[in-house]
Specification:
8 strands; 10% strand; Arc Repressor Mutant, subunit A; single chain; Rossmann fold; globular; three-stranded antiparallel beta sheet
């Protein structure tokens, strides 16, 4: 997040497995960028869009969606009371604002930009010239506030674009925006895209021009200390609610870390089960808790294992490497290469996926170990 905030006009691609926290990361980045108290006039105004919701049908339709969401966000920001006591209250009020869907049409009419609606599905669309005019108008409006110096699109589920037949046109177009003679837009436009490894694989297959100029970062699991802080916070809140004094002893904390592999989703789900036991005044037996969890979330683990070859999950190479790690303790790249007969280059790329899925950890540089014992038990019962 600090890297992005320091260079917000760059192109950033955030990769990670399912439920590792990509959407939460973008929401946290939006929260950080929207802070009007910084006063440096350096940060861009953030616009978050989950591409799985509008599901753009063409590049022209995608251009309209970007402009529409951007103007709706700017309109919401204009409506809120910024004199509230905290940034969090400002942010919550901003998210609660409801803006009419027609506000974008009125804006385009005002700046004399025509929509394209002569397509079979009648989706609203903008050509390159109309998009450029509208984007510059929005950036100008943002800069008038004196709080922001541009705009940054935070595009979640960006792998949606890679599955479309117009994907290469889209990446090429965004590359042109960021690497062309349109200096004004280049200087005041940032892009952050999040998605699964399909974004990385797309780059490998077709040498996408956008990805070639991007800064690529993977999201991994939490650290042990972060897990301990999270557990402590959750238990303190529960004790306050129940007026109890439950303490997570060091051995239970170690077991939680081992069971979840510090995967944020597994930690929250595991803590939910602990809280339920405590709320019901039931005895907390760790082994029973462990086995109940594996059974209850079997479908989740099955989706991660991904024998049906769905996007964003493990592939044949990742499953091969994971099986080689099971029961073997810490393993080096060389030992894994020998056990799997995979070249180092392929091994490293697959380990990136496994680390981003959270089921493998890297306790020391270039040493790998199974992350979650819950998932390992599901893969190898007993």
């Amino acid at each position: 997040m600090k890297e992005i905030c320091d260079r917000p006009s760059n192109v950033w691609i955030i990769l990670g497995g399912r439920r590792i926290g990509k959407t939460s990361f973008l929401n946290a980045l939006e929260f950080g960028l929207i802070d009007p108290t910084i006063g440096s006039f350096e940060q861009p105004f953030p616009v978050v869009i989950d591409l799985n919701r509008p599901k753009p049908k063409s590049l022209d339709n995608l251009r309209y969606i970007l402009i529409s969401r951007a103007w709706e966000a700017v309109s919401r920001w204009k409506e809120i009371d910024k004199e509230r006591p905290t940034l969090r209250s400002i942010y919550k009020n901003y998210l609660r604002q409801i803006i009419s869907g027609e506000v974008t049409v009125s804006f385009l009419e005002q700046i004399k930009v025509k929509l394209l609606i002569s397509n079979p599905d009648y989706e609203r669309a903008l050509d390159d010239n109309a998009f450029t005019i509208a984007l510059e108008a929005i950036i100008n409006e943002i800069r008038k506030t004196g709080e922001y110096n541009g705009i940054c699109f935070l595009l979640d589920s960006a792998e949606f674009i890679t599955s479309q037949d117009w994907a290469l046109d889209a990446w090429t177009y965004f590359r042109a925006l960021k690497d062309s003679d349109k200096a004004y837009i280049k200087q005041h436009l940032g892009l952050v895209l999040s998605g699964y490894r399909e974004l990385r694989d797309y780059q490998q297959k077709v040498c996408s021009p956008l990805l070639n100029i991007a800064n690529i970062r993977w999201l991994y699991t939490l650290t042990d200390d972060e897990v301990k802080a999270l557990v402590k916070s959750r238990i303190e809140n529960l004790n306050s609610k129940l007026e109890t004094n439950f303490v997570v002893q060091p051995d239970l904390m170690d077991r939680i870390i081992q069971a979840t592999g510090c995967h944020p989703c597994l930690i929250q789900l595991f803590l939910n089960k602990i809280e339920l036991k405590l709320c019901n005044s039931e005895e907390l037996v760790y082994n029973d808790l462990f086995l109940d969890f594996v059974e209850e979330y079997s479908n989740l683990f099955s989706s991660w294992w991904n024998e049906s070859q769905e996007a964003g999950r493990l592939g044949d190479q990742e499953r091969l490497i994971y099986k080689a790690l099971c029961g073997s303790g810490n393993s080096s790249l060389r030992s894994l290469s020998e056990r799997t007969n995979l070249r180092m280059s392929k091994l490293k790329k697959s380990l990136d996926v496994l680390l981003a899925t959270g089921i493998v950890r890297e306790p020391r540089k270039k040493e790998y170990v199974v992350g979650s014992s819950l998932f390992e038990h599901w893969v190898r019962p007993g």
